[in-house]
Amino acid sequence: QVQLVESGGGSVQPGGSLRLSCAASGTAISGNFMAWYRQAPGKQREFVAGISSGGITNYADSVKGRFTISRDNRENTVYLQMNSLQPEDTARYYCKKGAFIWGQGTQVTVSS
Q1: What is the DSSP letter of 66?
Q2: Which SS3 state, helix, strand or coil, does residue 80 take?
Q3: What do you get for the CA distance between the two ends of the chain, in Å?
Q4: What is the pLDDT of residues 45-101, one digit of tens each?
Q5: Is 23 exposed, middle or buried (0-12, 13-18, 19+ CB in 10 A)?
Q6: Which residues contact 45 (CB under 8 A, 6 or more apart)?
Q7: 49, 52, 86, 88: most buried by Cβ count inside 10 Å?
Q8: What is the pLDDT of residue 46?
Q9: 3-state secondary structure of 18
């Protein structure tokens, strides 16, 4: 069974940090573009960060300089390090493999 399982979400105060993980099972992430998306209540799902099979990264302007995406092909896991979190980062964060495979998401809430 192909699965992407996100973890690491939670509640933090503004300025805090979280590290999200996306563990793949039943499918290998190597050779695939991996990405993080997020969806806030009442809003469309939006791209946050992506990493190519060769390690090239790209980010949404809203998270540049604060978030870092990385991958560990041996562990079959993708990470999203999120620093300087702000209330507007509050959303459910989803991992995506290639064009079609999504995880169930992990909730991130930033509030004081």
Answers
A1: T
A2: strand
A3: 40
A4: 999 999 999 999 999 999 999 999 999 999 999 999 999 999 999 999 999 999 899
A5: middle
A6: 37, 38, 39, 94
A7: 49
A8: 98
A9: strand
Instruction: Using the structure block, give the residue that is written with the tokens 């009442």.
Output: 42
CA distance 94 to 36: 6
Tokens of residue 42, six digits: 């009442």
* Phi, psi dihedral angles at 88 (to 5 degrees): -70, -5
49-58's contacts with Cβ under 8 Å and 24+ in sequence apart are 49/80, 51/78
| d(C-alpha 41, C-alpha 15), whole Å | 21
Cβ 21 vs Cβ 6: under 8 Å: yes
Distance from C-alpha of 34 to C-alpha of 65, rounded to nearest angstrom: 19
What separation in angstroms does the CA of 23 have from each of 8, 40, 75? Answer: 11, 22, 8
Task: Using alpha carbons only, give the angle 63, 76, 78 rounded to the nearest 5 degrees.
Answer: 5
